[in-house]
Amino acid sequence: MTGARVSVGFWTGFGVVLALLVVAPFVLPEFWSRFVTEILIWGLVAMSSDILIGYTGMVSFGHSAFFGLGMYGAAAALLSVKPANLWLALAYGLVAAAVVAAFVAFFSTRLRDIYFSITTLVFSQIFYVIIFTWTAVTGGENGLTFSRPALTVPGLFSMPFTPNTLHWFVLAVVAISYLVLRRITHSPFGMVLQSIRENEPRARAIGYAVERYKIVAVMLSGLFAGLAGVLYALQNRFAAPDFVFFVVSGEVVIFNVMGGVGTLVGPVVGAAFFLLLREGFSRFFTEYYLIWVGLIFIAMVIFMPQGLLGFMRRRLNQ
Amino acid sequence: MLGLEQILIQTINGIVTGMILALVASGLTLIFGIMDVVNFAHGELFMLGAYVGVTTIAATGSFWLALVVATVTIALLGAVIQITTLRPLLGRDPLTTILATFGLSLVLQNYALWQFGPVARKIPEPLSGHFKLFYLDYPWYRLVIALLSAAIIGALWLFLKYGKYGIWIRATTQDRVMAAAMGIPVPWVHTAVFAIGAGMAAASGVLFGPLVGVNHAMGLDWVLKAFIVVVVGGMGNLGGSIAAAIFVSLLEAYASLWVSPAQAVIVSFVVLILTLLFRPTGLFVPTPK
C-alpha cells in the first residue's frame, strides 16, 4: 500500500461524497435536504468525540456540554449584538465551548477509563443544572429563540440564508473540520494520542507529557463540538437546555459505536444511521420508537463488535 | 435567620433521603464490584419497580404486598437482562457494558412511557400518621422508609457475610478465576447479583414512590446521584457507598436551606469532583499505595 495511491483513493472518495452532498438540496425534497443538514451537524459532534473515543481511548459522556455551550454562545452573540453577525456568533460559540472544554479537561484528564466517563458526565450535568436554573440569563427551561443572521463576507456580499445556502454553509464547515481533524489525527500529535490509547504507561515512559496531550485532545474535541453547536443554533434558531442534558452525550457515543470508532468517517455514518433509524421508526411506532432504536443498539454492542472499540482499533493498527 | 430547628429538620430529611439513596447505590456498587458492570439502567429498574408497585396497589390495595411483588418482579427482570445482554459481554472492555446498559435504559424508559403514559402516578402512603417536629408535622412514614432501607441493607450485609451464597459472591469479587476453580458457578453468581441489585432498586422505588410522583423519567436523577455516591464511597465498596449516600444527602439537604433543591445538586457534583481529584479510590477507604 503506497502513500500516493491511498491519497488518490481518499481524495476521489472525498470529492464524490462532497459533490453528492452539494447537489443534495437540488435532488431531495425539502424535508430530506434539511435532514441531511442535520446529519452533517450531528456528524460533526460525533467526529469531534471520536478524537477522544477512537484516537485517545477516552470515552467522553460530556459532549453535550460542549455542544450546548456552543449553542448558547451563539445565542448570546445573536441576542446581544445588533445587527446580528454570523461570524461573531461563531466566535462567541467557539470561545464558550473552548472555555468550558479547558475547564473540564483540566479536571477530567487526571482520571482514566470509567472514571473519566463519569467525570465528564457529571460536568455536563453541572452545566445543565446551571443553564436550567439560571432563568434570567439562559431562559431556563424554555431556552432562547433568536433570528438567523445573514450570510456575510465582509467587503464582498451579504445575503439572508436560504435553506440551500445554509446547507452549503454547514457542509463547508463540516468538510473543512473533517479535513482539519484528519490532518490532526495523521500528525505527530495524533500519533501520540494513539500511542496513549494503546499503552499509556509506555507513552509516558518514552517521555511524552501524557496529561498535557490529553488536555489538548479534550479541548480540541470540545472546540469542534462547540462548532457543531453553533451550526445547530443557526439551523434551528433556538438554544434549549435539553441539548446539554447527558442523554445527548449518550447519543453521541451511540453514533460513534454504531459507525465504528477511530475512523472519523464512521461516526458520521453512525449519526446518519441513528437519525434515519429514529426517523423511520418514529413513523411506524409514533412516540415509542426509541424502544426499537435502543434494542438495535444493544444488539449492535453485543453482536457487532466490529463497530465497537476493539475491531476498528485493530484494523487501524495493521 | 437560620434556626437550629431548620438545621435539625434538614438533618433528618438528609438522613431519610440518604438511606433510600444508599439502598439504590448499594445495588449499583454490588453490581460494579462483582461484575465490573457500570449499570446505567439502574435508575430505570428503580422507576419500573415503582410502576409495578403502583399497579399492584391498584389491584390489591396493599402497599406491603406491592413492595414484595415489585422487588421479586424486577429481580426476575434483572436476571433476564443479565442473561440476555450482559452475559455475552463478560470479559470485554467494561466500557461496552456502559453502552449496553445505556441502550437498556433507553428501552426501559420508553417502554414505561408507552405502557403507563406521561402522567405521573401516585403511590398512597401506607402510614398517614404525623408527629410534631418543631413547627412541622413530620410524617412517620419517612422514618419508616429510613428504617426499612437500613433493614434491607443490613440483611444484605448479613447475607454476604454469613450466607453460603453470600460467601460465593464475595469469593467471586475477590478472584473470579479462583472462585470458578473451586466449583462456584460464576456466571450464575453474576446473574444472582444483578437480580439482587435490581430487586433492591425496585424496593427503593416503591418506598420512595409516596414522596414524589412516579413517572417514566424519575430514574434519571437517581442514577446520577447513585453514581456519584458509588464513586465517592469507592467503587464496589458497600460500606463506603452507604456512608457516602448519607454524607452527600446531608450536604444537599443543608445546601437547600440557601438555594433551590435543583441547584443543591451541584453540591454533590462538587463533592464528586473533589473526591476524584484527591482520593480517586473513594473517600471512605484507605488510599492504596
Structure explained in plain terms:
The complex is a heterodimer of chains A (318) and B (289). Chain A has 318 residues and is mostly helical. Helices cover 77% and strands 3% of the residues of chain A. Chain A is globular. The mean pLDDT of chain A is 82. In chain A, helix 8 (188-198) packs across helix 9 (200-206). With 289 residues, chain B is mainly alpha-helical. Chain B has one domain (4-218). Chain B has eleven helices and two strands, in the order ααααββααααααα. Chain B has a two-stranded antiparallel ribbon with strand order 1-2. In chain B, helix 1 (4-35) packs parallel to helix 5 and helix 1 packs across helix 9. The longest helix of chain B has 32 residues, at 4-35. The relative contact order of chain B is 0.20. The chains are: A mainly alpha (318), B mainly alpha (289).
Question: TL;DR?
Answer:
The complex is a heterodimer of chains A (318) and B (289). Chain A is mainly α and 318 residues long.
Strand order of the largest sheet of chain A: 1-4
Question: What is the CATH first-level class name of the domain at 32-244 in chain A?
Answer: Mainly Alpha
Poorly predicted runs of 5 or more residues of chain A: none
Q: What would the average pLDDT of chain B be, to the nearest integer?
A: 82
Separation, N- and C-terminal Cα atoms of chain B: 47 Å
Shape of chain A: globular
The tally of structural domains of chain B comes to 1
Round the Cα radius of gyration of chain A to an integer and report it.
Answer: 19 Å
Class of secondary structure makeup of chain B: mainly alpha
Helix content of chain B: over 70%
Proportion of strand residues of chain B: under 5%
Write down the CATH topology of the domain at 32-244 in chain A.
ABC transporter involved in vitamin B12 uptake, BtuC
